[in-house]
């Protein structure tokens, strides 16, 4: 059961995928938002993805802002167009954590910018899988 994770942004979308067992996440790619549906559709078909997890950008107090509303609309459209289960998952601080990991790895600003969204998607997926494993579902 492969899971695809999405870190949605206005200009770029980070993607990450699990291994077939649904235990390990890895960054996959960063795609322009304008091409995200085509790219996700291709990945779902090519890699037999059974679920998509979309990061929900909540405010630190747990409330939803304008971006969370856009992400909900995107997730609903994704589910309708692809006919695959889409689940939202709290993504607070994942982009910040991704930036820190890439900085620790010694990547310069340009390389960090290119990879940050895919690493954030991988962190979303890792947290999602850990929570599912801990709850036994």
Automatic annotation (TrEMBL):
<keyword id="KW-0540">Nuclease</keyword>
<dbReference type="GO" id="GO:0005829">
    <property type="term" value="C:cytosol"/>
</dbReference>
<comment type="similarity">
    <text>Belongs to the YqgF HJR family.</text>
</comment>
<dbReference type="InterPro" id="IPR037027">
    <property type="entry name" value="YqgF/RNaseH-like_dom_sf"/>
</dbReference>
<dbReference type="Pfam" id="PF03652">
    <property type="entry name" value="RuvX"/>
</dbReference>
<keyword id="KW-0378">Hydrolase</keyword>
<dbReference type="GO" id="GO:0004518">
    <property type="term" value="F:nuclease activity"/>
</dbReference>
<comment type="function">
    <text>Could be a nuclease involved in processing of the 5'-end of pre-16S rRNA.</text>
</comment>
<dbReference type="InterPro" id="IPR006641">
    <property type="entry name" value="YqgF/RNaseH-like_dom"/>
</dbReference>
<dbReference type="GO" id="GO:0000967">
    <property type="term" value="P:rRNA 5'-end processing"/>
</dbReference>
<dbReference type="InterPro" id="IPR005227">
    <property type="entry name" value="YqgF"/>
</dbReference>
<feature type="domain" description="YqgF/RNase H-like">
    <location>
        <begin position="1"/>
        <end position="98"/>
    </location>
</feature>
<keyword id="KW-0690">Ribosome biogenesis</keyword>
<keyword id="KW-0963">Cytoplasm</keyword>
<protein>
    <recommendedName>
        <fullName>Putative pre-16S rRNA nuclease</fullName>
        <ecNumber>3.1.-.-</ecNumber>
    </recommendedName>
</protein>
<dbReference type="InterPro" id="IPR012337">
    <property type="entry name" value="RNaseH-like_sf"/>
</dbReference>
<dbReference type="GO" id="GO:0016788">
    <property type="term" value="F:hydrolase activity, acting on ester bonds"/>
</dbReference>
């Amino acid at each position: 059961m492969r899971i695809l994770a999405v870190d949605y942004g206005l200009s770029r979308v980070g993607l990450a995928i699990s291994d077939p067992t649904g235990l390990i996440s890895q960054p996959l790619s960063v795609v322009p938002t304008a091409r995200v549906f085509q790219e996700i559709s291709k990945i779902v078909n090519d890699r037999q993805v059974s679920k998509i997890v979309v990061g929900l950008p909540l405010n630190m107090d747990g409330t939803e802002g304008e971006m969370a509303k856009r992400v909900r609309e995107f997730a609903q459209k994704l589910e309708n167009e692809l006919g695959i289960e889409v689940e939202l998952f709290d993504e607070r601080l994942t982009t910040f954590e991704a930036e820190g990991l890439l900085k620790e790895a010694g990547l310069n600003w340009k390389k960090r910018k290119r990879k940050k969204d895919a690493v954030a998607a991988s962190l979303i997926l890792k947290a999602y899988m850990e929570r599912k494993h801990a709850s036994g579902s």
